[in-house]
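INTERNAL AUDIT FORM
Audit reference: QA-55
Scope: verify that the stored structure record matches its stored sequence.
Auditor: D.O.
Record contents follow.
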Amino acid sequence: MPPERVQELDALPSVSVDLGPGDGAPAIFTRKSLSSILGGSIQGLVVRCTDSASNLAQRHGIQDYLCPNLDHNAWSPTGPGKHGYMQVGLGRDSKRFNEGDLRHVFVGAGSHLQYCGWYRVLRVQPLTKEEWATLPQKVKETYSETTVKKEKSTLSSMSKEQVLTMYNSGEHRAPCVRLQCIAFDTAFYQELVCANDKFFEGKPPVLPPSAGSSARAPKRRKVAEATAGPKEHSEESEGGGG
């Protein structure tokens, strides 16, 4: 992450995180388990659960939540209580997060997600040419392809490669949304963990997301790639969800 963005995050108040009972490692969720626990689709970055909210979601007044994935949003929070950014704001998403909305955030890596906390989500200055250059090449290519799809009214005649060139030159700037963690509710988190463990009861043992990962695997389960499911409660935001 560019130094200026790091400094901006470092200036934000830090949040104390207490995971509660357990082995001290964050629990692993999947898009399928979150859909069962809270409601909503297994796809999309902005997950709406207004019409499919679980009892848990209804008790906590949750109508939607965010699932940015590090594979597509490389500056996402790296763990519970951490701050970060995501590149969301193409097409109709340009109207999102302009006022500092509050959302629960789950950050994914591959098919695994961690609950990171309660966030203030606010649009900030778009990426400069120099900041764009620091993103992984795969992220830049995927984002350029998404730009073509979501900016049809202005870029419909352009190819992914042409849009990528525009980003690389600074002619086009990728939007940026800041994710500021403002609270981590241990009791709510433990409700999520218990529901997650229940969802995976009876399934094969889980493998850790990667060697040396600190994430806590759900009890007696193996985390599998989510398969396609209903999309009526998802919002197809750029950057993917995981």
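Auditor finding: record pair retrieved intact. The helical segments are 3-10, 31-37, 55-59, 129-133, 137-150, 152-155, 160-169, 186-199.
Action required: none
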